[in-house]
C-alpha cells in the first residue's frame, strides 16, 4: 500500500467566504474520484482545521502501490479536479508519499 498525503495553504487574497467555498469544492471534487481511478483504495479531504493549523486542507489517499499513485497523478479525472478546483486557489502544496 502507498499513502499520498498533501497539505495545502490557500491564497491570502481569498476572503473567508471564498475560502469556505473553495474548501468545499476541493473536498467534493477530490472525494468524488473514489471508485473512478484504478488502484485508488481510499481518498479523504480534511477541510475543517483548528486555528492552530498552518495549512488549510489535507488530502489523505491510499493506493494499492506506487504505480497506482503515479497513474493517479496523470489520470484525466484527477487532472481535471486539480486544474479547476485546487491549483487556481492554492499558494503552498506540501506532499508526503510513503509505503505502508
UniProtKB/TrEMBL annotation:
Q: Which InterPro entries match?
A: Dabb (IPR013097), Dimeric_a/b-barrel (IPR011008)
What Gene3D superfamilies does UniProt report for this protein, alphabetically? 3.30.70.100
Start and end of every Stress-response A/B barrel domain?
2-98
* Pfam families xref list: Dabb (PF07876)
In which domain of life is the source organism classified?
Answer: Bacteria
Q: What PANTHER family does this protein's entry cite?
A: BLL2683 PROTEIN (PTHR37832), STRESS-RESPONSE A_B BARREL DOMAIN-CONTAINING PROTEIN (PTHR37832:SF1)
From the Swiss-Prot or TrEMBL record, give the protein name.
Stress responsive A/B barrel domain protein
Provenance organism = Subdoligranulum variabile DSM 15176
Amino acid at each position: 500500500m502507498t499513502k499520498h498525503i498533501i497539505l495545502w495553504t490557500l491564497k491570502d487574497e481569498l476572503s473567508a467566504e471564498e475560502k469556505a467555498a473553495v474548501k468545499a469544492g476541493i473536498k467534493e471534487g477530490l472525494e468524488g474520484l473514489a471508485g473512478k481511478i484504478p488502484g485508488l483504495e481510499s481518498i479523504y479531504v480534511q477541510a475543517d482545521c483548528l486555528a492552530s493549523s498552518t495549512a488549510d486542507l489535507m488530502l489523505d489517499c491510499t493506493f494499492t502501490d506506487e504505480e497506482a499513485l503515479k497513474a493517479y497523478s496523470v489520470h484525466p479525472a484527477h487532472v481535471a479536479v486539480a486544474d479547476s478546483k485546487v491549483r487556481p486557489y492554492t499558494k503552498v502544496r506540501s506532499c508526503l508519499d510513503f509505503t505502508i
